[in-house]
């Protein structure tokens, strides 16, 4: 099955909009055992849309277009594609009604121009949009399917997951089944070594390693008639990597919160070089108010002393970036916030501030679980953003390990 | 000038890697008055690379390829493109030496396979890579230019800015010049109204409004022989939007830090629903340790009382999401951290926790500057991520306004 994605939007080529939709579509199709063979991004013009669709139809079974379904003059996907597929646009009163209701429910006046979105190519199926006014469209062209989706991610995502993917899997039954197993806190080659110890038991299985932002997914793939093998292999891989398994949706931060919640404990952070990033990642998750009490971001040395009780002698003797300071930050965090578990981080994010002894990228991380403190030294070179990102991940991983061993 | 970008990498189509390079290239070219006409993303196969390049060469003056220049077996951009352009690969001892030096300077053992990157198509110019081992390549094919760049953003970005863009502008002199003026804290249509009052003085000027994550760029474009007009227009637009101007590189957070720094003041935050995101944004900027003392992330009510001194009566009477609580958080922040300026935020990020009186999206923001407190109410509907993002931006904007009026 050859699937092509056409992203329509001058703003993506201008660079003002990051194309997150392609990544989302790729991941969702991959989970179903399907894949995107090619993507094209073009401006919102009739000529560009027309020629990209013609090219795609010549080689694809499935074409997904993204964007250009809105009400403004530069939205011309619907009209252009209908013309190419030889479909007439019909004004659909039920769609117009849905759009009117969308505005009245939000007590917002409806500009007449949005009713342009009530025109539907004859023969097309409408894909409901619960988060916006532009409906998606499912059209047939010979043996190929053309699916048109709106560009805003919060509209596209539920439409793809709830409506489009099930339809795609029905029409193009995947020949393989996949299971992704999220792993964090261990290097890619060590993961490979662990997996290699169990793999010989499962021939006909394909294994891949996908490095994501905060985990590595071990991706197991088997033919659709070998689902039993696939599931047994997943059990074996999970067993051999037990201590490094993380939440498949929320990664290591999700697993940390699970461990804390399952013990009815509370959680806090004390951060210097990460500047609040660990707390931000934790509170990215909805519903953490039952376990997360708060964070003390002590960027200045005086804040480390005043808020966390780090002793001025410790700062003077060992420096603010030291195992001793990280230790005292962790102890102070627990005393101050009265939490059962926490993590304290101090480091040099750069680009300035490094010395031969304490280079940019150096960090000390102390985790504390029910009074037990563990401190580790890390060096994460690279630019400031990368250092902070990797230090945040290291802090969450060290805390997860500590929680699991407590 | 027709420019096409070819992104080579199965990981982008799989969705595990977000294509940030396209956005970066688009923004940089746009600043020079050039634009990307089309982008194609393909897997790392000889056939896909070959056919994408052939198609691009038939219609483009400039083709930029991204990715596939590394040392592994699935990196085949260099070999494939050299074959299509009829160029022989030559082993370059100077390049091999550079690669060896790269490893020895980092005290890392060099795998022999990386020397594959020392092969250069004859006639191609090498583009130095200061952050990795794969050199970029600049090749001619008839009148067209083909530029090959490595995929990792920290390698691509400096190569594009320092070497490729100047060469592109020399070969394809832009016919227009652009100035972007960053504006925040005022709606797009109000910006348009303000700009409209000065525009009649500057005919032959093109104006566009680009909505970015934390600002709107007013983009002024003029023919290359009208640079004087362009600069006068920029002065006029800056004048009429003076109070909403923000740092062109770092947006509103950069301007907040500038205002604090220029008075030799100090800064802190007190955050509930934003969970540390404001502090994270501030510390994303390098060199803020001279002004930023820290943050108190008080997610739980008890933390608001214990750390910030919010009175239990205030929480009981008005609730944790109220103007009164935001006020007391701001006052407590200054008392605790001894800062000259700060911002306190409390709100309901959702998806749960809303009531008819206090819906999801509601936030109260108090800014405090030298003891003067100002509090405003906001409602930012949408999902949790969007609410937190927009509340963070509102907090920074309110603080910037308050600082500028102090």
Give the key terms.
406 residues, Molybdenum Cofactor Biosythetic Enzyme, Chain A, Alpha-Beta Plaits, 3 domains, six-stranded mixed β-sheet, five-stranded mixed β-sheet, 41% helix, globular
**CATH topology label of the largest domain in chain A:** Molybdenum Cofactor Biosythetic Enzyme, Chain A
Number of strands of chain A: 16
What's the assembly state of these chains? Answer: homodimer
Elements of chain A, N to C (H/E): EHHEHEHEHEEEEHEHEEHHEHEHHHEEEH
What does this structure look like?
2 copies of one chain form a homodimer. Helix content of chain A is 41%, strand content 23%. By secondary structure, chain A is α/β, with parallel strands linked by helices. In chain A, the strands form 4 sheets. Chain A has a 6-stranded mixed sheet, sandwiched between helices. A 5-stranded mixed sheet of chain A has the order 13-12-14-15-16, sandwiched between helices. In chain A, strands 9-11-10 form a 3-stranded antiparallel sheet, covered by helices on one side. In chain A, β10 and β11 (216-223) form a beta hairpin. In chain A, α7 packs across α8 (227-240). The longest helix of chain A is centred in the C-terminal third of the chain and has 21 residues, at 384-404. The two termini of chain A are 49 Å apart. At the A-B interface, α1, α2, β2, α10 and β13 of A face α1, α2, β2, α10 and β13 of B.
